[in-house]
Amino acid sequence: MGDLTRDSDRLIETGRILRDDNRAGGRHRRGGKSIGSHSARARRKNLMARLRNVLIALFTIWVGAGIAGAFVSGIGFFGVMAVLLASVIAIAVFASFPKVKQPKRADLNKGDVGQMVTRTELWLEAQRPALPPPAVTLVDQIGVQLDGLSAQLQHVDQNHPKAREVRSLVGEQLPEMIDAYRRIPPHLQREERGGSTPAQQLEKSLGTISGEIDSITRQLAEGSLDDLAIRHRFLDYKFGAAQDGAPALKGPE
Q1: Can you name the residues that pair with 196 across neighbouring β-strands?
Q2: Residue 252 and residue 249: Cα distance in Å, rounded?
Q3: Among 142, 139, 110, which Cα is nearest to 217's?
Q4: Checking CA distances to 8, which of 18, 88, 200, 252 falls within 20 to 30 Å?
Q5: CA diameter of the chain
Q6: Comparing C-alpha atoms, which of 205, 142, 210, 158 is closest to residue 179?
């Protein structure tokens, strides 16, 4: 009797979770939208590869049909139907393949930091259907932040302390936290334990990571901001007087 009661409670809780997720926009919405420019670039590259393959296949089919028709004085009605069928099959096959290669969890932290960011964005996109809606929103936000962080890291040595900090935060702690959440059975993800639920803990942790990424980006950008301010003050000092009516500085004649 006790087992039956627990099973009933679990089914009711699972139904409540699905109801809340549907109201919030759907737990299992598909990740068609890229969360950052790196993953978007990878998807565009994949789309161009598919288009190229479709065009090559169609060109091969139609040229082959033309050559065959030249040798046999036309391919006839059934030949035309076969060419059309082959064209439809080629479009259906090559428009769906190759798929965007989803990076494996173990490969996220390999390569340079820029490659790590690209792989992490693609990996995060694949995790979105398994996350609660508030966490999905935070993942999308982190994707945008990773773009800004990546732009700053292009000018930083791979062994810079901040680059190593990013590797730890984005390449290790972030995926480990999501993996830990996904290992929890769905009916327990909203069950309160120790004052909060696993879903709430995930959301809070993602918010913390988002804040850390923003902090690191700002720290790395301080040098560029200071350089811009110095150049602005120099130009203002050198040419500001001319704008105020004083004679401009003349170069050697």
Answers
A1: 193
A2: 10
A3: 142
A4: 200
A5: 102
A6: 205
Question: Tokens at residue 42, please?
Answer: 């990878």
Residue 65 burial (CB count, 10 A)? 18
CA distance 232 to 250: 20
Spatial separation of the C-alpha atoms in residues 175 and 183, rounded to whole Å: 12
Q: In sequence order, which ranges of the chain are alpha helices (DSSP H)? A: 2-23, 37-71, 76-94, 113-127, 133-153, 161-168, 174-182, 198-243
CA-CA distance, 129 to 208, in Å (whole number)? Answer: 21
Place of tokens 């391919």: 75
SS3 73: coil
What's the rounded Cα separation, in Å, for the pair 241 and 247? 7
Q: Which residue has the tokens 């150049």?
A: 231
Residue 46 in tokens: 């994949």
Token pair in block for residue 211 = 């804040």
Q: What is the pTM of this model?
A: 0.59
Which residue, among 183, 119, 117, 127, has the nearest Cα to 150 in the 3D structure? Answer: 117
Q: How far apart are CA 4 and CA 10, in angstroms?
A: 10
How many residues in the chain?
253
Whether the predicted pLDDT of 183 surpasses 90: yes
Q: What is the pLDDT of residue 230?
A: 58
CA dihedral 213, 108, 105, 184 (to 10 degrees): -10
Asked whether the beta carbons of 61 and 83 are under 8 A apart, the reply is yes
Domain ranges for the chain: 10-232
Q: State the Cα–Cα distance between residues 165 and 28, nearest whole angstrom.
A: 32
Per-residue confidence at 241, pLDDT binned at 50, 70, 90?
A: low
